[in-house]
Design brief:
This is Cytochrome-c peroxidase. InterPro entries: Cyt_c-like_dom, Cyt_c-like_dom_sf, Cytochrome_c_Peroxidase/MauG, Di-haem_cyt_c_peroxidsae, MauG/Cytc_peroxidase. Pfam families: CCP_MauG, Cytochrom_C. A two-stranded antiparallel sheet has the order 1-2. The chain has 13 helices and four strands. Helices cover 37% and strands 3% of the residues. The N and C termini lie far apart (66 Å). It is globular, with a radius of gyration of 21 Å. α1 packs across α10 and α10 packs across α13. The chain binds protoporphyrin IX containing FE (2 copies). The site of one protoporphyrin IX containing FE has 25 residues, from α12.
Length: 329
């Protein structure tokens, strides 16, 4: 007969591997963010005029209504171009060790300058963005208040800083998992069993800490490389950043918070079913074929990582003026 998992013992072990997600208020206090910076960042997150076409905003690919991602295989950007990678969630991204599947940006402010300029994403230039923002008087006011005492408050750098401030508030506390860590008996036996497997079979070696991942880099296929249908040969991960042979097909271990909300999975976005993603991790990273009941339990555990979604009121954006640059092709 199966023995019920010992919740208290597992809680102790889990608390040594993971960390409870703080609330937005705690993050705001820690980072000393101001309301003015956060409000400006929120407006910019939803501002399609940061893109050359003026129809693509951060929220197009990181929709806050759908777990902070777009739920398609790989993102679609400027001119309906398909990008090479699946869009990771912006929720809790503030807790990642580095940003992007290959960790090429060190923080959210550095990250935010990427998509605005990427030709397959928003296809704009810093000058274009600054011209748009300077043409709209409401933005002059908002930047002045968000960055007081600076000579040129409207700048591409300050745009990125404001976006970082807003994104830092996009945290999802109070998941069943977090409540369990703090002492409540919120997990059922199947979920507890899944957590036990997750820790004792070795997933936790790569997916630990506050975001249950998002920290270290590992070859996708430590033990056995998945097929080219899941790991396309053209995307060599961190190798493309460092040009070091040992970084070939190395990626950041995905943060698993809210993972149930953000299919499809992996940087290629080729796997839609979370159970299948778990099974693939078993063979590719652990060299084990997980049993059906183990896969089901681990998947049930992963569902407990879904936290309270941030409540974000859609901002009313200021109107364009005659001098505002027109959308470009
Ligand atoms: C990655 C924010 C616009 C698609 C990211 C990440 C963040 C982010 C924080 C890293 C998350 C992580 O590594 O866990 C933003 C902001 C945007 C923006 C603030 C607006 C300025 C867009 C747009 C698209 C897009 C418009 C789609 C056209 C992606 C993709 C990645 C990504 C595909 C992964 C890229 C890679 O790893 O190489 N974004 N994003 N993002 N975003 Fe965005
Ligand atoms: C990605 C779960 C073990 C490294 C993922 C994803 C899931 C997952 C669900 C997809 C994340 C997403 O698409 O956003 C698990 C489970 C494991 C396990 C349940 C145990 C059975 C490991 C181990 C390592 C590892 C041991 C390191 C040796 C990675 C990496 C990725 C990833 C590098 C990103 C792959 C990519 O490029 O798409 N994991 N994982 N995982 N995991 Fe694991």
């Amino acid at each position: 007969m199966a023995v019920d998992p010992d919740a208290n013992k597992l809680r102790e072990q889990a608390n040594s591997q993971f960390k409870v997600i703080p609330t937005a208020e705690q993050v705001i206090a820690d980072k000393k963010l101001t309301v003015e910076q956060i409000d400006l960042g929120k407006q910019l997150f939803f501002e399609p005029r940061l893109s050359k076409s003026q129809i693509i905003s951060c929220n197009s690919c990181h929709s806050l209504g759908t777990g902070g991602s777009d739920n398609i295989r790989t993102s679609i950007g400027h001119g309906w171009q398909k990008g090479p990678r699946n869009s990771p969630t912006v929720l809790n991204a503030v807790f990642n060790g580095a940003q992007f599947w290959d960790g090429r940006a060190k923080d959210l402010a550095e990250q935010a300058k990427g998509p605005v300029q990427a030709s397959v994403e928003m296809n704009a230039t810093p000058k274009y963005v600054e011209d748009v923002l300077r043409s709209i008087p409401e933005y002059s006011e908002m930047f002045k208040k968000a960055f007081p005492g600076t000579q040129h408050p409207i700048s591409f750098d300050n745009m990125a800083k404001a976006l970082e401030a807003f994104e830092s508030t996009l945290v999802t506390p109070h998941s069943k998992f977090d409540q369990f860590l703090t002492g409540k008996n919120t997990l059922n036996n199947l979920e507890l069993k899944g957590m036990e497997h997750f820790m004792n079979k070795g997933c936790v070696a790569c997916h630990s800490g506050i975001n249950v991942g998002g920290q270290g880099y590992f070859p996708f296929g430590v033990v056995k490389k998945p097929g080219a249908d899941i790991l396309p040969v053209s995307d060599r991960g961190r190798y493309m950043v460092t040009k070091t042979a040992t970084d070939d097909y190395v990626f950041r271990a995905g943060p698993l918070r809210n993972i149930a909300l953000t299919p499809p999975y992996f940087h290629s976005g080729e796997v839609w079913d979370l159970e299948e993603a778990v099974a693939i991790m078993g063979t590719s990273q652990l060299g084990t074929t997980l049993a059906e009941d183990e896969i089901k339990a681990i998947t049930a555990f992963l569902h407990t990582l879904t936290g309270e979604q941030p409540k974000v009121e859609y901002p009313t954006l200021p109107r364009r003026r005659p001098q505002t640059p027109k959308p470009g092709e």
